[in-house]
Design goal:
Elements (H helix, E strand, L loop, with lengths): L12 E5 L2 E5 L2 H11 L2 H29 L10 H21 L3 H25 L1 E3 L2 E6 L3 E2 L1 H17 L10 H17 L4 H17 L4 H21 L1 H12 L2 H15 L24 H9 L1 H21 L6 H25 L18 H16 L4 H12 L5
Antiparallel strand pairs: 1-2, 3-4, 4-5
Helix pairs in contact: 2-3, 2-11, 2-12, 3-14, 4-5, 5-6, 5-7, 5-13, 5-14, 6-7, 7-8, 7-13, 8-9, 9-10, 10-11, 11-12, 12-13, 13-14
């Protein structure tokens, strides 16, 4: 096996430890290593979506602030915009911090976070607080929605469980992952939060398909997902009401219909910032239906750019994984991007009246406290897991080109 001299970042020093030369790292050199190894294209796409989110929340804030104001408490038109800036700042710190973790530490952090949020999710029905008829939050001095933080941790935990088969192909990894998935789905539907349950099941199904199991098991898993949806429609009121409203009209359908009309009212170029009027009638204009506000004020071309950015985000991660040999890395990155991409396109399809209302935000764009921080944390985990040393990769490519295998 080939050996390499220590890679020393610009401005770094080499020390001797145990007779072996090792780089002496300081904060500046650690930042240099992080910047060299990070996928800067992926980081740029994430920051671009967050910047669009800042403008979109500024556009939607007056509609939501006026709708939620009361005679006793009147919210400033830019209330949600100023709050969103604060949440984005916290989210950026979480994202950069997570992205600087070595891959092994990122895996451990995801597993610990997943265990903690699973326990918190179990506590929600007991001590949680209700908002709009749904009990999804814990009051810990600030409102915490455990399901949001469980999303990035879930992808990492599932990747870890399914990667056990590398050590022992006989381990029942599919059964273990299915049992965990079933427990989470039941806890989510008890809130009720059928939309998040669908997203978790979708991420699980993607990871199971990518884990290398047999076609027979994939077919059984797919059949199981369809059976769960059918059972949910028959016995789960929240799912049945949403699907019936989507197919046959009702309050939820009226909201989605209004969202679609708002989306199309701006034409290709939009009415202009703060000049839209249809958004004033939208419920949750700053969260669930922010895509429609973007359509009204910035135009369908802006909506098209957002769709392209999400597609580019997914494609960039998949391209990054093409030559990845580690199963955990492949599954974890695929699960994280499936969660972000899946949530984005569910939200967009709801706004286009092509999917039942799910009460789901547009990732990295919609207003949110728990959701913004959790999504930024998930993006940080994704950046950490896809980090690569370009010097080692370059050496491997050079040696492989002359027929030398490492």
């Amino acid at each position: 096996m080939a050996t390499y001299p220590p890679v020393v970042p610009r401005g770094g020093k080499v020390g001797v430890e145990g007779g072996i030369s090792r780089p002496v790292r300081n904060r500046r050199s650690e930042l240099a290593i992080w910047w060299r190894e990070i996928d800067r294209t992926l980081l740029f796409l994430i920051l671009t979506l967050m910047a669009i989110g800042t403008a979109a929340v500024a556009a939607s804030s007056p509609a939501s602030a006026r709708r939620l104001s009361t005679a006793a408490v009147r919210l400033d038109d830019l209330y949600f915009f100023t709050m969103h800036i604060r949440w984005q700042f916290v989210g950026l710190i979480a994202m950069i911090g997570a992205s600087m973790l070595p891959k092994e530490l990122a895996r451990r952090a995801g597993i610990v976070l997943g265990l903690a949020m699973l326990i918190a999710l179990m506590l929600v029905p007991v001590v949680g607080t209700s908002v709009n008829g749904a009990k999804r939050w814990l009051n810990l001095g600030m409102s915490l929605q455990p399901s949001e933080f469980l999303k990035p941790a879930f992808a990492i935990c599932m990747a870890w469980i399914l990667s056990w088969r590398v050590r022992d192909p006989n381990l029942p990894v599919v059964a273990v992952s299915t049992g965990l998935m079933g427990l989470i789905a039941m806890l989510l539907m008890a809130q009720p939060d059928f939309g998040s349950a669908v997203l978790f099941i979708g991420v699980w199904f993607v990871l199971v398909m990518m884990s290398g199991i047999s076609i027979k098991l994939i077919g059984l898993a797919g059949g199981g997902v369809m059976a769960v949806v059918a059972l949910a429609y028959m016995f789960y009121d929240n799912a049945r009401h949403r699907i019936d409203a989507f197919l046959g009209g009702g309050t939820a359908f009226d909201q989605v219909d209004l969202a679609q009309r708002t989306l199309l009212s701006g034409g290709w170029t939009g009415s202009g910032l703060w000049l839209g009027t249809r958004k004033l009638g939208l419920p949750e204009a700053h969260t669930d239906y922010i895509f429609s506000v973007i359509g009204e004020e910035f135009g369908l071309l802006a909506c098209l750019v957002i769709v392209i950015l999400y597609l580019a985000l997914v494609a960039r991660v998949l391209v990054r994984l093409l030559d990845e040999e580690d199963l955990f890395t492949t599954l974890a990155a695929a699960g994280l991007i499936a969660q972000i991409g899946g949530q984005a396109f569910i939200n967009i399809l709801v706004n286009l009246q092509l999917f039942p209302s799910k009460g789901m935000t547009l990732p990295l764009i919609s207003y949110g406290g728990s959701s913004t921080i959790a999504l930024c944390l998930g993006a940080g985990f994704l950046l950490a897991i896809t980090r690569r040393n370009p010097f080692i990769r370059r050496e491997r490519f050079s040696l492989a080109s002359v027929g030398i295998k490492l």
